[in-house]
Amino acid sequence: MSKIVSLVGQVTATIYDISKSADRQGGGIHAVGVAIGDLDRMTQQNAAMVEQSAAASEALRSQSQRLSQLVGAFKLEG
Questions:
Q1: Distance CA 32, CA 68 (A)
Q2: What's the whole-model pTM score?
Q3: Is the dihedral of CA 60, 65, 68, 73 positive or negative?
């Protein structure tokens, strides 16, 4: 009977270890999920900034063309 009690204690300890490991693994999986969410948010922000940069670049190109036309109207002597 004492042998059975000892084995039940070992099984209980093993189940406890498995439970703790599963808890840690669940926490790790949650952390990975949070990190993926952060990466997704940053990717979307970067895409928005690329669009804004492209629009600003086009506006600057247009303005520089217009400025070039305006400056081209002046003639320097010599």
A1: 53
A2: 0.61
A3: negative
